[in-house]
Structures are given as C-alpha cells and as structure tokens.
Amino acid sequence: MISSGFPAATATAARVRIGSSLCQFGPSCAKHGRIATRETALMTRVTTTLGLLLALATAACAPAPEPYQPPPLVVTPGIDPVTGQPIDLTPGLNDREPDTCHAADYQYLKGQNQSSVTAAGITRPTRFVTPGGIVSQEEYDSFRINFHLDPAGTVVRITCG
Description:
161 residues, alpha+beta, Trypsin Inhibitor V, Chain A, 2 domains, 3-stranded mixed beta sheet, two-stranded antiparallel sheet, 2 helices, 24% helix
C-alpha cells in the first residue's frame, strides 16, 4: 500500500507491513525496507523452487511412456520407395543400369559372329569391343550399342556406351 501526504516530487513515503508493525520508508527506516525486499525475493525463490520440485515429483510418479514404434514399411514391387515412381522390372540390362540404347532389343545376337551383327541392319551407332581392346571413356555415348566379342569373334555381351 503506497500513501503519501507530500507533493509527487518529494513523495518518498510508503508503508510496508513488516511483522506486526508498520514502517514508513525514509532515512530512519531504510534498513527495514531492504530487509523486506530481501525477504520478498527469498520467498519468491523458495516458492518457485518448491513448485518445481512438486512438478518433478509428480512427473516422476507417472508411468513411463511406451517406446516409439515406427509403422511397418510397406514395399510395393515395381514402385521406388524413395520417389514413389514406377520402376521398370524387366530382367536383363535394366538390373544393372538403364537401357538407353535399347540393347535388350538385340540380345538375340549373342552367340553370333561379327558379320551376323553387321548384316542385322542395326541403324543405331554400334561398336565392337575385342578382348584386350582399348575402350576410351572420352568417346562414351549412352545411345551406342557395344558388342563385346570373344577371341573367336563371337558376341558374348551387349551393352550401352
């Protein structure tokens, strides 16, 4: 409770109840004002600490929450689980890499010789890779069909590049 009988500029009077007596702040009663302020701060800290301890004690009595169980992963064949896009499940070259040169269309030429491949009339760019032959990555073309030959000149593998 604040009361003052003086003009606002010199108002220094305030009444604070300390114990059972009233003290008027001023030069003679400043000690009691500091004590009251300290007591108020101490009581605030004690009350806050007790409230936190009560909350912790109550929380400690609660049952433990159940551990998180992620939902089961449903894998759909033919659908990429990351992107959700359909995946080509055609066996053969698609198991290893995309068939950008449509080499799967020419798998019937496996076991044939180089002249049979040339006579097949393939309109796409082709390359014959001999055993021990150098294949430069500088000339890489994902749309070109590579026919890998064995020492006898028979096609043993067909790839793109």
